[in-house]
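Lab notebook, bench 4. The sequencing result for the construct came back, and we need a structural model before the next group meeting so we can plan mutations. Quick request posted to the team channel:

Model the 3D structure of this chain.
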Amino acid sequence: MSVSVACVGALGLFSAILWSFLVYDSPAHHPRISTEERDYIQKALNTNVDANVCIKQSSNENFVYVAKNASSRWHAFDVLSQAWSLP
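Done. Here's the predicted structure in token form:
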């Protein structure tokens, strides 16, 4: 395993741990915002924010974005893997 792979993995692990401590499911569960700020956010959303709300991502724009990213990552991998095998 190369050092660059280990560094990228460590950075991903660090960001996942940081995300789990700093991000909350809803403003109602966040301990570091004031009640005025919490009320303002919930009023701006015009709904009662609940932790069990599931965001549906079924629009065509999201599908195109995911397909574009998957194909560009595959293309980069394909090009780089062939570059290593050149004489």
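The chain has two domains: 1-54, 55-87.
Will bring this to the meeting.
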